[in-house]
Design brief:
This protein is α+β, with helices and mostly antiparallel strands and 229 residues long. It is built from nine helices and seven strands; from the N terminus they run H-H-E-H-H-E-E-H-H-H-E-E-H-H-E-E. It has a three-stranded antiparallel β-sheet. Strand 4 and strand 5 form a beta hairpin.
Length: 229
């Protein structure tokens, strides 16, 4: 890789522990976060938080927006606050360089051309079952609470970033985001089958996976089987 590789440069910015903590906080919030909020959350000075947040933004790890906070508008309302949220860029670091994304795109295109969606879903569902069976016993809980705790742990480990929303378990991140944008029916169908298999492997009886696409979120949502939401 060249010295100017954006993936390496972005990852190197996270070497600082305060910067890492700020990045994790902003990502966990899932919304625009101000300098004051970030500083208070970490118990550091606002100026230090601003410095590190701007470094994260310069590296493309955070996106920046400006908005007035509070209800006051017009003259005397003050300057808009600088706000931060997780960046829209994706970075992949591989030493030596590998082209896994290119291979994934070619394979997805081949499956789509061949019309092998069902075969892909069958493979994904079985892989989900394997992941679920391998993860059994990772949580101490019992009943529905234990099921959901265990499921949440597995989903977090796989990069889905699960978030509770009433009886729903929404997934803030799609691990297949780039491919899903290019081959949405194929990849979203694969993802649904994978998560259905995961529920089977974990023997999670209180939740079911279903499609519920919305901008910025995974296309699949996990809902209570007795819920109509």
């Amino acid at each position: 890789m060249s010295e100017g590789d954006p993936g390496i440069e972005a990852v190197s910015v996270l070497h600082d522990p305060v910067r890492r903590a700020l990045y994790r906080h902003v990502v966990a919030e899932g919304r625009d976060v101000s300098r004051n909020e970030a500083a208070a959350a970490l118990g550091i000075q606002r100026s230090l938080a601003a410095f590190h947040l701007d470094k994260l933004a310069e590296a493309g790890l955070l996106d920046v927006a400006y908005r007035r906070l509070g209800e006051r508008r017009g003259p005397g309302a003050g300057r808009p606050a600088k706000l931060y949220r997780r960046g829209s860029n994706e970075y992949h670091v591989s030493l030596p360089p590998r082209a896994y994304e290119t291979a994934a795109r070619l394979l997805a295109e081949a499956v789509e051309i061949a019309g092998a969606d069902q075969e892909l879903q069958e493979v994904a569902r079985e892989r989900g079952r394997e992941l679920g069976r391998a993860a059994e016993g990772t949580s101490e809980g019992h009943g529905q609470h234990g099921e959901r705790e265990r499921l949440g742990e597995v989903l977090a480990q796989r990069g889905y970033e699960p978030r509770r929303e009433g009886d729903l378990l929404r997934l803030r991140n799609c691990p297949f985001h780039v491919l899903a944008g290019t081959f949405p029916p194929l990849v979203c169908g694969m993802n649904l089958a994978l998560l259905e298999g995961l529920l089977e492997g974990l023997e999670t009886k209180s939740l079911a996976a279903r499609m519920d696409p919305r901008p910025g979120w995974c296309c699949v949502v996990l809902s209570s089987k007795n819920s109509d939401n």
